[in-house]
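Input/output pair, single chain:
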Amino acid sequence: MKENPFRISGIVTGKYFIDRADECQAVIETMRGQGEKMLIYGQRRMGKSSILLNTADRLRKEKEQVVYADISPATSLTDVANIILHAFNKETGGTVNWIELLRQVQLSFTISSQGIPSLDVSLKKESADKQLACLSEVLDSLDAYAAKKKLTLIVDEFQKMVEFGAEAAEWQLRSAIQQHQHLNHIYAGSQTRIIDQMLMKDRAFYRFFEILSIGPIDETFMAEWIDKRFNQAFGKPYSIGAECIRLAGPRTRDIVKLARKSFVFAQRSQKIDSLVADAIQQLVSEEDDFLRPQWDHLSNLQKDILKVVASGVTEISSQATITRFGLPSSSKLAYHFNTLVKSDVLGKDSDGYHFDNPFFKHWVAQTLPQGAKS
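Output:
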């Protein structure tokens, strides 16, 4: 069996990483600065975390220190502070004098036998304002450290920092961050609806960050990247990259996931024409146990809406579509469309509604009568 050149588990690095040269260079320039503030955001599965961790590894080779803190598991601002402290301790190899560094934090903290600091868990019972004040003091401590040794802090899924403290937390966080002259702040997030609101004119982070938006990789580049790896592995030309993008796009991880499964099929069969179609059918089948509960949780009307989107109809609210699929009035439809968007089942852009999970789309499409498909 040949080694599969496509990887989707964990953070993709090395030869498995699709080189986003421009985005990586922008992040590296921020990391090489001092007191920089950058926000990186885009839809999930676009490769933001891989970009950040690959650039962090490059900076570490230059003897720079980069703290990567994924705060998605946090349930409070105290958790956020502790995740950052633990990540900082790991990056610095446990060499920090915590009593000296955290002397300004107005709350007790403990140091484990492994030398890992943690704020007192009793803080989680306090108000969001008090927790945020303590988090700000932790960030101030890192800035003080960065005055002596250059340091970049990366906070992944940063929007959770303000979710816990509502909109007022944005202003408190901005006040703390803008005073930092040494620590580089790089924040990343995938909840684009929330982040777009946070960046509006009347909000705290309006024109505060340098913005780096992570969108789809150029389709031609992506298709050639996939085909090249097939060609190298099998010693003959393959042209399946474009089909992978058409069926799974536009998000990087979804495309690579389909390319990975197509590679598995290519080792079993010489039929190139049906390779990607067979692969996506297999993926949909494998995800049935995951997708079916999502489907069963929906109302009948929401299921009908998903069938309409899966059918490829573009004029969803037209009278012809309403009649064809037996839907209620367009005003009632709008409410349920918004519900599906808020729950991340559907997404919406200038081209209309689309499934957040492309494999869910193909799963739903299988439930349609043949005549209902466009």
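The chain has a mean pLDDT of 86. The two ends are 39 Å apart (CA to CA).
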